[in-house]
Amino acid sequence: MTADRRSKQAPKVTRETLMERHRVARERREAARLGSDEYRAAAEEVAEIEIAIARLEEPPPTTSATG
Asked: What would the pLDDT profile of 12-54 be if each residue is shown by its tens digit?
């Protein structure tokens, strides 16, 4: 793999980076007026980050070969 190709790859997402993004998004949500566009956007971001954290923590489902 070339250095150029490596530089174009997205950085690896870790639980720690997701938790930091979650904290910041929660702070934005708490600072926004309830029901405002800012509140909704922050709430959606919090939910998306929580899903990403769950995906990191939970093993993927297994499929059985029986049928």
From this structure: 889 999 999 999 999 999 999 999 999 999 999 999 999 999 9
- Residues 59 and 62: their CA atoms lie apart, in Å, by 9
Phi, psi of 63 (to 5 degrees): -110, 145
Ranges of each domain in the chain: 13-57
d(CA 65, CA 20): 40
* pTM of the predicted model as reported, rounded to 2 decimal places: 0.71
As given in the structure block, the two tokens for residue 37 are 């566009």
Is there a contact between 26 and 47 (Cβ–Cβ < 8 Å)?
no
Q: What does the DSSP assignment read for 49-67?
A: HHHHHHHHHSPPPP--S--
Nearest in space to 18 (alpha carbons), one of 59, 55, 65: 55
